[in-house]
Design brief:
- This protein is an all-alpha fold and about 160 residues long.
- Helices cover about 85% and strands about 0% of the residues.
- The chain is built from six helices and no strands.
- The longest helix has 27 residues.
- It is elongated, with a radius of gyration of 16 Å.
Length: about 160
């Protein structure tokens, strides 16, 4: 089987794992979340409701585009950093919503933001358009990391 097709499939599978995994933990205790003291810079719920479908869609498309444009080594590198960033983001979702450990959650989301930088860089190498479309995801993960630290400081 063609390596580039496998790389695309793995990247898209990662997006599905990310979307479904985070959804499970984020919805685990909605009443608890509503009781938290929120950072002043937290965007409205409507923005959050729009940004995640956009992010997941762009990440899926980027997985395909990157697999078609980069070398085997670059593809593997992209998938490793993408997978690690997802693992860190899922760790945040679990730590924040299940045991309510704000410190571990903040560290995990900051790690996700840092691990996403090579993903963004390699996406730009693959295609300028997809790199630009992925910038909002990078911004969102960085903002979300700052929010995690804000929740830690306020709760």
């Amino acid at each position: 089987m063609d390596f580039k097709l496998i790389a695309a499939a793995v990247g898209i599978l990662f997006v599905f794992i990310y979307a479904f995994g985070s959804g499970i933990w984020v919805s685990s205790s909605p009443g608890w979340y509503a009781s938290l003291n929120r950072p002043a810079w937290q965007p409205p719920s409507a923005v959050i409701g729009l940004i995640w479908p956009y992010n997941f869609t762009v990440l899926g498309i980027a997985s395909y585009q990157v697999s078609r444009s980069l070398s085997k080594f670059e593809n593997i590198t992209w998938l490793v950093f993408f997978g690690l960033s997802i693992a860190a983001a899922l760790t945040w979702a679990y730590q924040f919503y299940v045991p309510h450990n704000f410190l571990y959650a903040s560290i995990a989301l900051t790690s996700a933001a840092v691990l996403t930088l090579p993903v963004l860089f390699l996406t730009f190498r693959a295609t300028l358009t997809m790199g630009l479309l992925l910038v909002p995801y990078q911004i969102w993960v960085a903002v979300a990391a700052s929010l995690a630290w804000g929740y830690l400081a306020r709760n």
